């Protein structure tokens, strides 16, 4: 009996430790990624006006890491379990099928970084806070799925907080209109990326890492004409720190953080739940905002903080209500299934459960 209780206690401690490590890794990677990208995109001592080049290089790092981990997995399968991927096994047909998602993916990461270039980290969360709203709109327009009035009310609260935050940023004199526009476009692309990812995962055998590889491979090609149009080739060629190993080290570290975000996000969801992951992301955004204000010694008004609180409250409430709806839908599906088992001659149509986006 004592041995069984000791084993159960050890299992609980191991589970709690796994949760703490997963959440901590998500927070560290996400916050570090944002702050490092802010420096690479608009650091005063860096003076590199090439946001698309920075984003393109991070895609290159992701592709190389995918191939590296695949090679390690092939040589040492007991050390790491990673999908077998190599340049020789790439399928052009799959690459073409994934291309629409890749276009949205390029827009998402490009607009994210362009938003971060023109706005401060403290305003970054507000600038991209309309993702939930666009998610509701896109899910209805593309998938035909409706949302409850409670969830729509939360979206209206987020919109109110967004405009309040924009107004307060303007009052403080630090508002960048182009940065806000990029933030809105990034929010739209994030919502579309989640929907198209869900639709195209079966194309790559439901492997998120294969999809990551094809997405980033396509992105490395798609970014090239945009960098040319934006005049970034000359900017990079004449960059005074082009051969500085510290600069390339930071660039590679940014790519590494971007790659790790895919893993730590999945780890946190696996260790907790999709609801807890969204709550953790909301809390992380609040902590990130406070850290940015303290780091750059920014003076913010009371109403500015209220706008952040309104957006955070709306996002948290939306997550909670959507979770309740999904649970009710799941219970309804189970009850229909039970009745169908008892009456096998009757068919029952059950809507597919919406995945957390």
Automatic annotation (TrEMBL):
Membrane topology: Multi-pass membrane protein
Biased composition (Basic and acidic residues): 327-344
Region of interest (Disordered), residue spans: 327-357
Residue ranges of the TM segments: 16-35, 55-73, 149-166, 172-196, 246-266, 302-321
Domain of life: Eukaryota
InterPro entries found in the cross-reference section: Sugar_P_trans_dom, TPT_transporter
Protein location: Membrane
Residue intervals of the Sugar phosphate transporter domain: 19-318
Signal peptide interval: none
Gene Ontology CC annotations of this record: membrane
Keyword Protein transport: no
Protein keywords: Membrane, Transmembrane, Transmembrane helix
Name recorded for this polypeptide: Sugar phosphate transporter domain-containing protein
Organism annotation: Diploscapter pachys
């Amino acid at each position: 009996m004592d041995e069984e209780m000791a084993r159960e206690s050890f299992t609980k401690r191991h589970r709690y430790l796994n949760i703490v490590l997963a959440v901590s890794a998500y927070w560290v990677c996400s916050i570090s990624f944002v702050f490092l990208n802010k420096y690479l995109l608009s650091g005063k001592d860096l003076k590199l006006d090439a946001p698309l080049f920075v984003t393109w290089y991070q895609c290159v790092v992701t592709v190389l890491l995918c191939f590296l981990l695949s090679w390690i997995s092939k040589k040492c399968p007991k050390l790491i379990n990673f999908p077998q991927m190599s340049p020789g096994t790439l399928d052009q047909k799959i690459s073409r099928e994934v291309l629409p998602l890749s276009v949205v993916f390029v827009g998402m990461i490009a607009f994210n970084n362009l938003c971060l270039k023109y706005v401060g980290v403290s305003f970054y969360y507000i600038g991209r806070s309309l993702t939930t709203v666009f998610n509701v709109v896109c899910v209805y327009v593309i998938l035909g799925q409706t949302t409850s009035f409670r969830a729509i009310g939360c979206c209206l609260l987020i919109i109110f907080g967004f405009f309040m935050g924009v107004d307060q940023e303007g009052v403080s004199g630090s508002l960048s209109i182009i940065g806000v526009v990029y933030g809105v476009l990034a929010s739209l692309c994030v919502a579309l990326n989640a929907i198209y990812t869900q639709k195209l995962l079966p194309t790559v055998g439901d492997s998120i890492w294969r999809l990551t590889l094809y997405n980033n491979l396509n992105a490395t090609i798609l970014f090239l004409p945009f960098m040319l149009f934006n005049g970034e080739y000359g900017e990079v060629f004449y960059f005074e720190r082009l051969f500085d190993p510290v600069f390339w080290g930071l660039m590679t570290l940014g790519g590494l953080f971007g790659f790790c975000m895919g893993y730590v996000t999945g780890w946190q969801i696996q260790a907790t739940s999709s609801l807890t992951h969204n709550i953790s992301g909301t809390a992380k955004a609040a902590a990130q905002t406070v850290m940015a204000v303290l780091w750059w010694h920014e003076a913010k008004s009371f109403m500015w903080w209220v706008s952040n609180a309104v957006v955070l409250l709306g996002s948290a409430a939306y997550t909670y209500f959507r979770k309740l709806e999904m649970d009710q839908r799941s219970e309804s599906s189970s009850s229909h299934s039970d009745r169908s088992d008892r009456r096998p001659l009757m068919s029952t149509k059950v809507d597919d459960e919406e995945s957390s986006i």
